[in-house]
Write a structure and sequence with these properties.
Length: 593
Amino acid sequence: MSSDATSQPYPGDPNQPPPGAYGPPPGAYQPPQPQPYVEPGAPQQPPGAYVPPGAYTPVPVAPSGSGRGRGPKVAVAAILSVVLLAAVGAVVLFKFVLDRGPDPAESFPATASMYVELNLDPSFDQTPKLLDHLQKFEDLEEYEDTDALVEAFVDESGVEGVDAAEDISSWLGLRHGLATWEYDDETYAVLSLASTDANAAEEGMAQIRAASGGDESSFDYTVEDDHVLIVIGETGADKALAAAESEAADQPLAESDDYAEARSWLDGDQILVHWTDMDAVGDLAEMTIGSESDAVEDLYSGHLIYGFSAFDQGFEVTYRMFGDADHRWTGTDGLIDGMGELPASDFALAAYVPENVDEIAQGWLGFFEEFYGVDATATDVVVEAPLTDAEYAEYTELDEQYWAGTLAAEDEERYWELDGRYWAAGTEDEPWVEETYGPDFGEIETAVGDFTDLLAGATLSGGGNFSAEDDVDPDSLHFAAHLAEDRAQELEDLITTWSEGEPLPEGVEVDGSELSYTGSAVADGTLAEDDRFRDFAGLTPAQCSVGAWVDFTRAAEEYPDDFAGLEPLSAFAWAHGIEDGDGTGVMRLYLKD
């Protein structure tokens, strides 16, 4: 059930298969075994030698001139023996080794809005890398197998009344899923946990539910031969469980068009898979926070997927956003190659500003306008009353209890009422109703429009080095804006206006379409000379819109206290771009050897 990265090598003869290597498990059906053909007069196999079922027993080649024509027959028989042996081994390997549990996506309804799959043993390649990488961190070095990870997680969760080894590890498999699902106007968490022992799972789940204090209406489950299906919600979990099972039987998530399209794109073995239906998320946002789903859909609609895996030098995340329309943030050829020519700074960034940046900006502004503040011209706005001195004292006391985790249930409604009024209107001594925070929204829209007009089609890049004294060494900074038109002077003037007259640093140069700055102590060499960056650059989309690089090794040298326990981190890299009209990207976290 677990994957042990420290397993001992096989002590026997390396030229012979281990005992029982290709045999069926105890108690399995065994068909009648044909007797192996043995050439008359041939030497017998030594006692204990392994003979695969039906295999041809090779004999010494006959002397030249005898048994004319036997050479081809011997060769064919030998090949058939190898093929048969490989076939038997493959069946046994798949059925009894690689079969770590059912696909969790088969257990969820196709209407699930979000799905996460965790596979703690996706392949013989991934699991050893995962455990090896985790053991580089001081707090994780004791975890030699996946059972230890699970038990530590349970222990850290603080759940009382549950024995991790007895109630969970005794039956928990290695492939699990979690989904959010809306049923009867309620949102539920649905879990599918791989199980290796149905009886132990039944006992363990009963103990877990009892320890949680829940009942069938808030925490219901069913135990199958190979997995446990759980539904959790505020109420009606038992009805939702029955409905989820029924829908999944007819229309499972695994067979839905959107999920199947996304999962088939995500190549390779993945430790974690996360899929989201953004249209359903928009509807959920409207239900939970009151935001219009149109605002979310204007920002992004469709579905997205990302996968988390381990590679030789660290961890990798790849993702794709399957949009209903072409991804707005288009890319350009050669962005990452150009980034590789930047100075080998501790951190660097390169970005292409698409020509339709004004449309993108308007979409973002429309989304955030709802959260910016109260429209003073609106007639239906309810103005909250500031807290009195007595109410503020009461609020302060309740706020301390809330953050200490001691707030009584009967005081929660009063606390949230006072909290809402405090942040909306302040107190009578210090009212916030008349306060403004920064420019009004109209000024922001104007400024954004001015910048997008100048930056459309531009390529921006920059970077610098970390400094323990100044956070960033100002002399190491470098920046360049390559505009689509010869308007660099207009950009400098606009920046100066919005910096309230503060001039740009001495050394800024304006030359036609380029505005640039290079410090007196920029890093030597280029990013492309770094093996890690070159390795990453080969994975990026052909048309990239954003690239980022951070050298954690240098950051740890400058800020050792902030990186306590994170010493194994080496570098972070990210690139986002376009594939067939969809947004896609890759992130890599490099670790030290």
